[in-house]
C-alpha cells in the first residue's frame, strides 16, 4: 500500500529532472604517450566546455623529455606537432576545419601549441579535436607517430 502511494511522488520527481542532466558531459581528456622508447613524451590534451548557448574545445599538443627518462637524453632529431579542430552545428551543417602545426630540428616543442574554437549549441552540434605528434628519434631513420582524438556529439544538448 505504501509503494502505491509513493509512485505518484516518484513520477513527479522524475519529470522534474531537467533534460540538461541527461545531456552528454564534455569529453575532456589528456594523454601522455611515450615516444622513442620512453625518452620523450607526446603530451596531448582536449578541453571541452560549454555555456548556456555555446560549446567549445581547446586542444594542446607538445613533445617534451619524458619526466622519468634515465640518464642523458639527446634532443629529438626532428618533431612535428599538429592540432586540428572540426566543428558544425545546425546553422552551419558543413564541417569547419581549423589546424595549426609546428616543427623543429634537434629540439623539443617548448610550450604546448594551442588551438580552439566555439560554436552555438544546437541538436546538430558536433565538435572534434585531434592532436598529432611525430618524432624522429636520434640514431633512427623512422618517424614515430602518436594521435589522440575526441569528439562531442550534441555539444551538451
Structural commentary:
The chain is mostly beta strands. Helix content is 10%, strand content 52%. It is elongated and about 50 Å long. Residues 9-21 have low confidence and may be disordered.
Q: Please tally the helical runs, counting DSSP H or I stretches of 4 or more residues.
A: 1
Question: What assembly state would you assign to the polypeptide chains in this entry?
Answer: single chain
Measured between the Cα atoms of the first and last residue, the distance is 39 Å
What is the H/E order? HEEEEEEEE
Query: Which range does the strand content fall in?
Result: over 45%
* Annotation, overall tally of beta strands: 8
Overall geometric form: elongated
The helix content is under 10%
Rg of Cα set: 22 Å
| Strand line-up across the major sheet | 1-2-3-6
pLDDT under 50 segments (min length 5)?
9-21
Structural class: mainly beta
Q: Major sheet: size, sense and barrel closure?
A: 4 strands, antiparallel
Mean pLDDT: 87
